[in-house]
Amino acid sequence: MDAEDLRDIFRGLGPVQIRRMFGGQGIYQDELMFALVASGELYLKVDDESVGFFRDVGSRPFAFEMRDGRKSIMSYWLMPESALDDPDEAAQLANMALAAARRAKSAQLRKGGKAAPGRRARKKASEPVT
Length: 130
What we know:
By secondary structure, the protein is α+β, with helices and mostly antiparallel strands. The protein has four helices and six strands.
């Protein structure tokens, strides 16, 4: 998926910014990452409040193998295929993902507002993908 495909999927949500990351792309709105593309698949941010919905629709989490062979599961779940061609459904799911991202950011700020140890500061999401 290229940047235009992603903007088209989320056109019902409003402007989004796309930034390359981890061999994929992060999708942002208002400096909040709410979705990612990895291996050509689109995943949305989830938390305890929204994961049940994704589980119920047969989605699965984004997972990858770490260098030491362990499997890491992220808080992003595969976007239902039906939403890829339905901007209203995509916007509804993206709003759920944005709400999860806001809750995660709020929790991080309550814990001191610092990035995890060893993490570098990132460029602003508004920087274009080339």
